[in-house]
Amino acid sequence: MATPVRSMSSRAVQAERTRQQILETAQRLFTELGYDATSLQMIADEMGLTKAAVYYHFRAKDAIMLPGVQRLKALLDDAAAIRGRRARLEFLVNEFIDFLVQNRHYAVMAATDPAARRDQRDAESAALRQRGLTLLYGDNPTGAQRLAASAVFFIPDCLPDLVDLTDEELREALQTMVLHMLRVPSRPRE
User: Fold this and answer.
1) What whole-number distance in Å separates Cα of residue 181 and Cα of residue 105?
2) Which residues are within 8 A (CB) of 116 and not within 5 positions of it... i.e. 6 or more apart?
3) Which long-range contacts (CB under 8 A, 24 or more apart) does 82-90 make?
4) Residues 40-79: tens digit of each pLDDT
5) Number of DSSP helices (H) and strands (E) in the chain, helices first
6) Burial environment of residue 30 by CB neighbours within 10 A (0 to 12, 13 to 18, 19 or more)
């Protein structure tokens, strides 16, 4: 009886390993060739798999982007549980920066590829941005706060200009700039 459990377990491990390899290969091809120019067949060919094998893990090319979206949703869920604006802001900034640094090559592609940019403007992306804004500033953010959050959400568009930075240099530059932008001082009108 123990053998089938091990077999299923090792199959599940292999399936997850294959899924991760597909993600890595797809991201590399998206970066090299562009989102629209990369097909599921090309991903399969690059890995020595059949298209059906890739399709088993990802029914469509845009599903390959789903883990990143899910990670951002989880980040927002975790932030929602944090009490205190400053602690929540620091958590969001640190996690968002880690996400950008870890996915910097994809972010560069997403910022420069017209098809990927089109996908960034969909309703789900808008909902994520709105949720982030609410977590940062509450239900009634000021105009300056909305502008600061919008500027932060478009930082990935700037990453192509920063490819010469190491991960640590990029992390430090992002942290300095994002924290500066999000701490919008309120000044009384004179």
Assistant:
1) 24
2) 30, 34, 35, 109, 110
3) 85/136, 88/135, 88/136, 89/136, 89/182, 89/183
4) 899 999 999 999 988 888 877 777 777 777 888 999 999 9
5) 10, 0
6) buried
Residues 6+ apart with CB under 8 A from 25: 43, 46, 47
Q: What is the pLDDT of residues 135-178, one digit of tens each?
A: 999 999 999 999 999 999 888 888 888 989 999 999 999 999 99
Q: Where are the beta strands (DSSP E) in the chain?
A: none
For residue 71, the Cα-to-chain-centroid distance in whole angstroms is 7
Q: What is the pTM of this model?
A: 0.69
* Token digits of residue 80: 């929602």
Contacts of 24 (CB under 8 A, 6+ apart): none
CA dist list (Å): 48 to 31, 43, 80, 114:
20, 9, 42, 28
SS3 101: helix
Q: CA-to-CA distance for 95 and 98, rounded, in angstroms?
A: 5
Contacts 24+ apart (CB under 8 A), 124-132: 124/69, 128/69, 128/72, 128/73, 128/76, 129/153, 131/76, 132/76, 132/92
Question: Residue 35: which of 99, 85, 96, 105 has the closest Cα?
Answer: 105
Distance CA 169, CA 175 (A): 10
